[in-house]
């Protein structure tokens, strides 16, 4: 979220014209959809629910969305919910879709979460002073479902003091936030209706931080989103755009516009739709252009060895995601650059991160502490040692001296996951528990690596391996072509370029 706050906007109602932000096609579509939902020129809750057709498990989320639209529809006054007329609907829509972010400097995600708050946003308090008694009454009479049950504890996060002071009075019920996160998780999962898993994950996001409060401060939520899921609101914007400006298409299973749909792995023994969504929240948006994640390597199928890892993962020209399934933990890593041998240095960049999925839900991004020069020891790959991510020493590792946040031995069967609180030379630091130190050894059950590019990247990888195999064969005096000119697939299979069983290039 940006630094500009909605609290500073002072647009005279008489001068605000929401229709100017929509084209004619959008206005016609929204008018038709409004007519389907409304009764006597106003959308009532029942008509809204009937139109959205959410599963019963997510009806509370639909009610919260109705509450948000009713509140934002009163812009620029924002003095409370307003009847959802056509003007109110398009006003709320242009706010949530981000149409006012440049013109009026309104952050869509900020306005959405503020509309669900149980205490008045800062801009309301500027207009009207609220006494402690009135504020207490507002809290007791708040309607809707809440963020308090989510249990997201943002207490350990590093926050700017001015932001904490600025929004100290704005809070969201934890049960509402749980409901909202459940909606966000559901939007990207067309292959599953496992609401118990969705709800469990949403609750876990909150409980991992605190289970002792019924509300979450807006400043804590803001910081969590910035560190953990910087584009978490994109699917919500895509959903409301598809719902309110595109007339419904029968039997369309997709809830999001094509460009905003979450990727789906082509095959996996580890990734679930919920896990894929969680990772997509954190991965840079430009790396999500391909809607299929291609599994490059599976340790359980391709073998637990550095050689097998290299023959399947190296030479892939795009970003990758690595999943490590262990007996007591599930970890992931986003690697922005092609894999390579480290030799005399680390590699990677500041967009790389580590992700703990189980038992905790946490993200380890490059350190941002300003009072020290953090390491840039993102990734280290060496046959003699193994795979290390997040070096916490100033020098290159040796067999007797390696300290990483995540380390896999060179047999790829054992590893450690660790975090040093306030390390002198940090590379990655925990978002939710920066003050905790731990070392967790584990035995690997499986490792999977996914390429986030498309068919073009796979073709480049196959071509690079083929060229290297041809060069190796030439130097060894071998001919990888048969007498009929066809490639000798037995030699290519030995090189790890193709899998004869599945007839697919590796």
Entry summary:
The protein contains 17 helices and 18 strands. The protein is α+β, with helices and mostly antiparallel strands and 506 residues long.
Give structural notes:
This protein has 506 residues and is α+β, with helices and mostly antiparallel strands. The chain has 17 helices and 18 strands. The strands form four sheets. Strands 5, 6, 7, 8, 9, 10, 11, 12, 13, 14, 15 and 16 form a twelve-stranded mixed sheet that branches. Strand 13 (404-409) and strand 14 form a beta hairpin. The radius of gyration is 26 Å and the shape is globular. Residues 1-11, 122-168 and 500-506 have low confidence and may be disordered.
Shape: globular
Low-pLDDT parts are 1-11, 122-168, 500-506
Overall pLDDT metric: 81
> For the report, how would you describe the main beta sheet?
12 strands, mixed
Oligomeric composition of the shown chains? single chain
What is the distance, rounded to the nearest whole angstrom, between the alpha carbons of the first and last residues? 40 Å
Element layout with pairings:
Blueprint lengths: L23 H14 E2 L2 E2 L1 H8 L6 H14 L13 H11 L11 H8 L6 H6 L4 H10 L19 H6 L4 E3 H14 L7 H13 L7 E3 H11 L5 H12 L18 E2 L7 H10 L9 E7 H4 L3 H8 L6 E7 L3 E6 L17 E6 L3 E5 L12 E4 L3 E6 L12 E6 L4 E6 L8 E3 L7 E14 L3 H22 L12 H6 L3 E2 L4 E2 L1
Parallel strand pairs: 5-6
Antiparallel strand pairs: 1-2, 3-4, 6-16, 7-8, 7-16, 8-9, 9-10, 10-15, 11-12, 12-13, 13-14, 14-16, 17-18
Helix pairs in contact: 2-3, 3-4, 3-5, 9-10
List keywords for this structure.
12-stranded mixed β-sheet; two-stranded antiparallel ribbon
């Amino acid at each position: 979220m940006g630094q500009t706050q909605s609290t500073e906007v002072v647009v005279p109602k008489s001068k605000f014209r929401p229709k100017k932000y929509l084209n004619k096609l959008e206005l016609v579509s929204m008018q038709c959809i409004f007519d389907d939902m409304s009764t006597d020129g106003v959308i009532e809750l029942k008509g809204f629910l009937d139109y959205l057709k959410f599963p019963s498990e997510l009806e509370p989320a639909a009610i919260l969305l109705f509450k948000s639209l009713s509140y934002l529809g009163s812009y620029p006054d924002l003095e409370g919910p307003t009847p959802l007329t056509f003007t109110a609907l398009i006003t709320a829509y242009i706010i949530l879709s981000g149409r006012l972010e440049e013109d009026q400097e309104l952050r869509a995600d900020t306005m959405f979460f503020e509309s669900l708050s149980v205490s008045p946003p800062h801009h309301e308090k500027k207009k009207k002073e609220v006494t402690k008694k009135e504020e207490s009454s507002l809290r007791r009479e708040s309607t809707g479902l809440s963020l308090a049950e989510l249990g997201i504890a943002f207490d350990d996060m590093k926050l700017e003091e001015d932001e904490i002071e600025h929004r100290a009075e704005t809070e969201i019920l934890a049960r509402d936030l749980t409901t909202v996160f459940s909606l966000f998780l559901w939007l990207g999962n067309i292959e599953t209706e496992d609401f118990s898993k969705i709800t469990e994950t949403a609750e876990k996001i909150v409980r991992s931080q605190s289970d002792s409060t019924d509300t979450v401060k807006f400043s804590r939520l803001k910081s969590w989103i910035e560190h953990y899921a910087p584009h978490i609101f994109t699917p919500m914007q895509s959903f409301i755009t598809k719902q309110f400006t595109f007339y419904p298409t029968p039997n369309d299973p997709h809830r999001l516009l094509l460009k905003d749909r979450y990727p789906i792995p082509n095959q996996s023994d580890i990734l679930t739709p919920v896990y894929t969504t969680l990772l997509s929240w954190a991965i840079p948006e430009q790396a999500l252009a391909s809607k299929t994640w291609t599994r490059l390597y599976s340790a359980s199928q391709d073998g637990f060895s550095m050689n097998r890892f290299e023959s399947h993962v190296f030479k892939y020209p795009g970003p990758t995601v690595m999943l490590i399934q262990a007996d007591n933990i599930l970890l992931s890593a986003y690697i922005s650059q092609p894999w390579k041998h480290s030799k005399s240095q680390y590699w990677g960049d500041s967009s790389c991160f580590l992700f703990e999925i189980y038992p905790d839900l946490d993200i380890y991004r490059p350190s941002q502490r300003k009072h020290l020069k953090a390491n840039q020891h993102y990734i280290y790959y060496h046959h003699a040692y193994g795979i290390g991510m997040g070096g916490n020493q100033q020098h290159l590792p040796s067999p007797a001296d390696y300290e990483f946040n995540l380390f896999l031995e060179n047999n790829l069967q054992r590893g450690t996951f660790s975090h040093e609180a306030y390390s002198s030379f940090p590379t990655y630091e925990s978002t939710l528990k920066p003050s905790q130190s731990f070392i967790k050894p584990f035995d690997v059950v499986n490792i999977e690596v996914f390429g986030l590019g498309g068919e073009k990247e796979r073709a480049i990888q196959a071509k690079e391996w083929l060229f290297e195999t041809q060069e190796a064969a030439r130097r060894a005096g071998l001919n990888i072509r048969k007498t009929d000119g066809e490639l000798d697939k037995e030699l290519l299979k030995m090189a790890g370029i193709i899998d004869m069983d599945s007839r697919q290039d590796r």
